[in-house]
Amino acid sequence: MNLILLGAPGAGKGTQAKFIAEKYGIPQISTGDMLREAVAKGTELGKIAKEFMSQGKLVPDEIVVGIVKERLKQKDCENGFILDGFPRTIAQAEALDEIMKEMGKKIDAVININVPEEEVVRRIVNRRICRKCGAIYHLLYDPPKKEGICDKCGGELYQRDDDRESVVRERFRVYRRDTEPLIEYYKKKGNLLNVDGSKNIEDVKEKILIMLEEIKA
Ligand code: AP5
Ligand code: MG
Known about the structure:
Structural class: alpha/beta
Radius of gyration: 17 Å
Bound molecules: BIS(adenosine)-5'-pentaphosphate, magnesium ion
Helix content: 40-55%
Largest sheet: 5 strands, parallel
CATH superfamily: P-loop containing nucleotide triphosphate hydrolases
Order of helices and strands: EHEHHHEHEHEEEHHEH
Shape: globular
Number of strands: 8
Strand content: 15-25%
Number of helices: 9
Distance between the termini: 12 Å
Number of domains: 1
Strand order of the largest sheet: 2-3-1-4-8
């Protein structure tokens, strides 16, 4: 299955993408994670990306499209993939259509996770991520067993630089302006699936799973 996960910052895209990736044995392609890795390594791309990310702005389309295009050509994407955080603008969505056409593939479903802004801010300011394996935690809703330590690999948990409240508000504003129009874009194409993301993690997982099983059938 070739899937897209849409949703505001903190809606739960990463949490659900990891679950879907594991369940169906397909790679999670998170542009946010790829960019953060480039920033951590201090590559040329990372230096450019950091300027935008730290302010809650989008990294320019041509850069992100280039990264995704290369990633989708890799062998592990042959049997499907789940895009997390891409596309994020109409221009990126059109570029993806073009890439899919060139590769002779199509997007099977676009899962849109809906969560109100106040809940999203609450989720993000209490999020912690494992530096080693990328596992996602929430101090209240999904805490690690031992404070500051990843349950899965023992790695150190950290808070993202762009998870400060002022930056989160800007990310949300950018989402509203640039990304929300994609809901209409995919609705028109007829492959949009809406999920109420304000439910707990397990309920959201279950809802997504039921919808995906219907598509597969
Ligand atoms: P990115 O990393 O994609 O960030 P984002 O879209 O802002 O989304 P988040 O990762 O913050 O949230 P999420 O939806 O994954 O939620 P999560 O599962 O972690 O992008 C970061 C930056 O990179 C952008 O601002 C931009 O600069 C750049 N960038 C990336 N892609 C780009 C692109 N395509 N074009 C241009 N620039 C790009 O969950 C959040 C928290 O809530 C966690 O603590 C989790 O445990 C908890 N939680 C999850 N689900 C639930 C639930 N159902 N109930 C309770 N708690 C929950
Ligand atoms: Mg994420």
